[in-house]
Structure formats: C-alpha cells, structure tokens
Amino acid sequence: MNRIKAFASRNMKEILREPLSYIFCLGFPIVMLIVMTCVNNSIPKESGMTIFRIDNLYGGISVFGQTFIMLFTAISVSKDREGAFLVRLYASPMKPTDFIAGYIIPMTVLSLIQNIITGIASLVISLITETEINIGGMLISFIVLIPSAVMFIGFGLLFGSLFSEKSSPAISSVIISLGSFLGGIWFDSEMTGGTILKICKCLPFFYCTKSARSATSVNFGKEEFIIPLIIVTVCAVVINIIASYSFRTKMKADLS
Q: Taking a C-beta distance cutoff of 8 angstroms, is the pair 191, 222 a contact?
C-alpha cells in the first residue's frame, strides 16, 4: 500500500507541474460550457432543441472532459515507460498492480476535481440563464461519473502501454473524437435513429453520457440509467484488465 501511495503521489505531482493539465483538464470544459450555452441561446425556442441547455450540457461536458484525462494518462505512461524512470522501478519490489493503481488513483482524483469545477460552473451558468438544474442530481452524478472516468483512464493506460510517447496522443485523439461525436455530447443521438444510433449504442461513450445526464435529471429508470451505468462499469473493468495485462507484458519485455 505504501508503494502505491508513494507512486500515486509522484504522479499527482507530475500532473500539477504540467500547465497543460490545467488548460485541457480543468479550463477547457468550462470554456466549452460557455460556448455551448451561447450556441443554445442563439437557437430559436420554437425548434425544441434542448441538448445544449445547461441541465443537459453538464453531463455531456463532464464526460467530454474525461477524455482529456485519458490523453494525459496515455502521455504519462508512455513517457515513463520510454524513459529511465520505470526501468529503475522495474527493479524495485513494486508489482504491476502497484503501477496500475498508482496511475489510476491520481487520475481519478483529477477527474473528480474536474467534475466538481464543471458542476460549479454549470450552477453559475444556470443562475445567469435562469435555467433550473437539480443540485441533488448533480451531486449524484459525481459518483455516477466515476466508472466512466476509470474507463477512460483504462484506455489511457492501454495506449500508453502499447504505443510510444508520440503515437499514444494520436490514438487518444481518435477516442476523443469518437467519444464526443458518437457519445451524444454534441447532438441528441436518440433523435437520429437508423445507422447512427446503432453505431452509438455499440460504443460505451453513448452510455457514459446517458447515465450522467439521467443522474443529473434524477431519472433512475432502467433504460435511462441502470442499464447504461452497468454497461459503463463493465466496460471500465474489462478495459482496465486488458490495460493491466498489456502493461505487465510490456514490463516483462522491457526487462528482458
């Protein structure tokens, strides 16, 4: 446990030293909230479009912000793996599970901080735009968003383990694009129907956004909340198992 604590503390300090982590992980979601709220205000009320209304936007932007946590995880792991730092740690008593936990814990904490800041910004915007947002549902969403955060962190671990410091950000960018456009963040995928909706339902990002929005609106129905949350949780477990195996395999390859 002490080894995990020390390694997690080191990774958290590395995050705090990186200025881009403040810009992309904390600042960028707030900027997107403001921009999309301005877009929403320019849409005629007669259209009936509510996707960019702050009570719906909060959950989507929270999930969108987590994709950048994935990016920083991938960069951190690939940088450590290619440098001399992990090579020295490989010779220590640390186990692969210690490394994985040491990355997951600080990134999860960063994601939680990100969600809280996004939530506070959403509350401020809701007061300015006079849009009602359920504070209790938002608090619940902080917990509901943890499985999706762990899932995205797992993707980052996987890409950081398999790819180089130059390649892992590019691969992560693909997931950011898929997560934002096919996760129902920028459009109501339920309204599209047809092939697009089928593709969305085949990807976990759709269920991340759906469970977050349902929690915020305190809609705990089976189809709207329970099933999406279960799917996200299962995906988070599977992705992290694959990432752990990949990291362990790379670790043995680097030592041989």
A: no
- The whole-model pTM stands at 0.91
Residues 6+ apart with CB under 8 A from 43: 49, 52
In angstroms, rounded to a whole number, what is the distance separating the alpha carbons of residues 96 and 216?
A: 36
Structure confidence at residue 254 (pLDDT): 64
SS (HEC) of the chain:
CHHHHHHHHHHHHHHHHCHHHHHHHHHHHHHHHHHHHHHHHHCCHHHCCCCCCHHHHHHHHHHHHHHHHHHHHHHHHHHHHHCHHHHHHHCCCCCHHHHHHHHHHHHHHHHHHHHHHHHHHHHHHHHHHCCCCCHHHHHHHHHHHHHHHHHHHHHHHHHHHHCCCCHHHHHHHHHHHHHHHCCCCCCCHHHHCHHHHHHHHCCHHHHHHHHHHHHHCCCCCHHHHHHHHHHHHHHHHHHHHHHHHHHHHHHHHHHC
Q: What is the mean pLDDT of residues 133-155?
A: 93
pLDDT tens track for 44-64: 776 667 778 888 889 999 999
- The CA distance from 218 to 1, in Å, is 37
C-beta of residue 138 within 8 angstroms of C-beta of residue 226: no
Q: Are 244 and 100 in contact (CB under 8 A)?
A: yes
Query: What's the CA gap between 63 and 53, in Å, rounded?
Result: 16
Q: For CA atoms 16, 17, 21, 27, give the dihedral sign.
A: positive
Instruction: Write down the residue that tokens 């549902």 correspond to.
Output: 137
The whole-angstrom separation of Cα 244 and Cα 157 is: 8
Domain boundary assignment for the chain: 2-255
Q: What is the pLDDT of residue 90?
A: 66
